[in-house]
Amino acid sequence: MIIRGGRLLDLETRAAPFQDILVADGRIIQVGNPGLDAPATAEAIDAAGLLRHPGLVKAHTHGMFNLCKGMSDRSSLELLLVNAPAMIAQHSAEMKHLSTYLGAVEMLMKGCTACCDLTFGFPFATIDEMVAIGQAYIDAGMRAVVAPSLADRSFYKAIPGLLDHIPSSLKAATAQHGSSSPHDGIRMMGQLLRDWPHERDRVSLGIAPVIPLHCSDGLMTDCADLAREYAVVLHSHVAESKVQAVSSLTAYGNTMTAHLDSLGLLGPNFTVAHGVWLDDDDMRRLADNGSSVAHCAGSNMRLGCGIADARRMIELGVNLAIGTDSANCSDNQNMYEAMRYASMASNVRGPDYRRWLSSPEIIRAATQGGAYALGFGDIGKIAPGYRADIVFIDLNSTNWMPLNDPANQLVLAEDGTGPKHVIVNGAFVVKDRRHRSCNLEDLSVRVEAARERLMELTLPARNVGAALEKIVGDFCIGLARRHYHIERYAAPLGQ
Ligand SMILES: [Zn+2]
To answer: Which residues form the signal peptide (predicted)?
Structure first.
């Protein structure tokens, strides 16, 4: 395949010169000036009027919640955790595939070609269902790391003191809140790692102790051992909310990151999702171990978790990547929006504009930074040797008229409507703004039917969630009002 006539985003110069791209066997062979030599047999692709950028790499999402977009208003992370397990526990095998596939199609149509999906774990998915979840990405034509959630402690036991506030009439309903025995979870994860049938450069596995407070130390060290044995990534929600940060001091006598460090979890394969309440020492530990942070500024604002200090992460040497988080707190799966949020969130941290994230820094995080976090060494760039995962933005769009600074416009103007074509591994998955194998009308019928069924199945759980909302809400607001040695809220407490 020889792609001619289009512009190519160049982050170094903030320009978009005309360049040809030669692709063979799914990889980029050469990038060069117009008129690049190509074999006579190469298929010619006309990219006139199009800007090409590397497929965006999303470092954090949850495919299991794609049927839940727009379901909550004014929900904190902790209230989300009250309701979420019951919602996903009711997914049939078909719904698991459907939910994942729906998100994959959305991401591809919005320029994202790879993601890390912290998805159903054990309980709530069998090995066969996990394989089907991986198949959903293959069916959609997307690259992914699928990391099943592992936990052996319920949300109510994870937050010290919370269970004492749950009335006895509701305690039974909270007992099995999405956790499995540590032995069962690790055994299933090991089996999955051994038997995974998918090509690992398309859909690989990761290991996700979901939130450290929800996992015993033994479970987390078992996760680290498995990750070493199978050379896969580790992924966890770390210091996402102030409730987690304060609770870690109570549970561990230390920050969550320092505790993970003491257990040997940090390494180049480790990604912190969120990291809003990381202090300098936490960031240094992550940097010293070559670890990543998946910065999800939109979710952090949506759930009121605060504003992460992404500049400080970069300064101290942490690999910065970008995520949206899931559809029940994002709610679309739009990486352009995630980049824009990362930019805006950085700017409102303070007046020194020299510390704000620049557009090229954000694009690097959303491509190369994500590729590193996912453990895919050959995506995230349009350069010889890299996989041909390429997005073609239509410059005949009002977002791009006029073409001033392509890096700024990708972060600040593009809204997800621009991708005209998307290729993954050198093959078109989106062409002329249509997903090549997905009929959106048919998908909509299946999704609506699943939604109706879920509404019936989850009614009892939603009633329990409603009964618990005020109790959990009040308790967690109290925790979040406690002193912590760093501040990540936009306004001082009490204002
Ligand atoms: Zn998350």
So the answer is: none
Confidence check: pLDDT of 176 > 80: no
CA of 61 relative to ligand 1 center, distance in Å: 6
CA of 272 relative to ligand 1 center, distance in Å? 10
Residue range(s) defining the domain that contains residue 60: 54-374
Ligand 1 mean position to 276 CA, how many Å?
A: 12
d(CA 169, CA 211): 27
Letter for the amino acid at 157?
A: K
Per residue in 66-84, pLDDT (tens digit) is 999 999 999 999 999 998 8
Both structure tokens of 240: 């996402």
Q: Using the mean position of ligand 1's atoms as its centre, give its distance from the Cα of residue 274 in Å.
A: 8
CA distance 195 to 189: 10
Contact between 263 and 217 under an 8 Å Cβ cutoff? The reply is yes
Please name the residue ranges forming H helices in 307-351. Answer: 310-316, 335-347
331 C-alpha to ligand 1 centroid (Å) = 12
Tokens encoding 314: 């970069």
Q: How far apart are the CA of 88 and the centre of ligand 1, in A?
A: 14
As for how many domains the chain has, the answer is 1
Domain assignment present for 458:
no
- Report which DSSP code applies to 352: -
| Any domain includes 59 | yes
What confidence score (pLDDT) does residue 495 get?
60
Distance 39 CA to ligand 1 centre (A): 46
CA of 277 to the centre of ligand 1 (A): 15
Ligand 1 center to 138 CA (angstroms): 22
CATH code (residue 82):
3.20.20.140
**Residue whose C-alpha is closest to residue 219's, from 227, 65, 41, 18:** 227
Q: Is residue 262 part of a domain?
A: yes
Rounded CA-CA distance 325/176 in Å is 24
Centre a 10 Å sphere on the Cβ of residue 22 and count the other Cβ atoms it contains: 21
**What spacing in Å lies between the alpha carbon of 64 and ligand 1's midpoint?**
11
3-state secondary structure of 129: helix
* Residue 401 located in a structural domain: no
| Ligand 1 centroid to residue 53 C-alpha, Å | 26
